[in-house]
Design brief:
2 copies of one chain form a homodimer. By secondary structure, the first copy, chain A, is α+β, with helices and mostly antiparallel strands. The first copy, chain A, is 60% helix and 12% strand. In chain A, a hairpin with a 2-residue loop joins strand 2 and strand 3. In chain A, helix 1 runs antiparallel to helix 4 and helix 1 packs across helix 5. The longest helix of chain A has 29 residues. Chain A is elongated, with a radius of gyration of 18 Å. Chain A binds a DNA duplex through helix 4.
Chain lengths: 113, 113
DNA sequence: TTTATATGCAACCATAAGGTTGCATATTGT
DNA sequence: ACAATATGCAACCTTATGGTTGCATATAAA
């Protein structure tokens, strides 16, 4: 009953992933987490122009999309970048791109008759 | 005043792109357009379980994200897949992935002292 | 043991998003 | 000319979504 890590991402799972990426606040949170270091919520709130609770909500959206991981450390919750979601999104788009290339090839063959 | 086609996608432009991909209806519309053929709105409405107007709105979102192109042909509007948006999204994620790899390398070096 | 920090939870708000219905209009088919 | 198609536009509805404030609670610092 485990999940095949090499299985292609279903459109159904891609939706929340792309939706998570489709927000400027979350995109900038992700870029701040790209250093690979754990960041506490208060820290991520700094300079965001938002309240801590708003940032918390965004981080949870990112976590459900497997773009970040949260870990409680004492009184603070640290968030770390997680490449899982990023790789899933990448492979989904690569698949789409391949399909597109094949479609183009078929069209070309069809025209060349 | 023209746009450099090789310029990296700004996060600002990536947001509407990912947001466009973050909806199941639009994702399935895109897959139907992957055959490279122009499809009229009525046709795309078939089997969507939605009204023509709803589908029209989705198609316009996709068009603003440069994922499809519309062309009026007589009394019907045909939509065709456009790889521009797809490639922009791909390159954005590839960039992010590269940055992540570099961050990991730095962390590894730091740890190995 | 106070006091200050860092969060979680819940209620609430305004606006954006996804959908629908109704009506007008330009093309195509009879 | 007349009927049938394929759309566009606009108004309206409902529900997410992005944000906020207020309050309770656990942990760290004085």
């Amino acid at each position: 009953m485990s999940v095949d890590p090499t299985a292609p991402l279903l459109p159904r799972d891609a939706v929340p992933l792309f939706a998570a990426l489709g927000d400027s606040t979350r995109l900038s949170l992700l870029s701040r987490l790209q250093d690979g270091q754990p960041h506490a919520i208060v820290e991520l709130t700094q300079g965001s122009g938002l309240t801590r609770q708003a940032v918390t909500k965004h981080l949870r959206v990112l976590e459900r999309a497997r773009l970040v991981i949260s870990q409680r450390e004492g009184r603070e919750t640290r968030y770390v970048f997680d490449a899982t979601g990023l790789n899933e999104a990448r492979s989904y788009l690569e698949m789409a791109s391949l399909q597109w290339d094949r479609a183009i090839d078929r069209l070309r063959l069809f025209v060349e008759d």
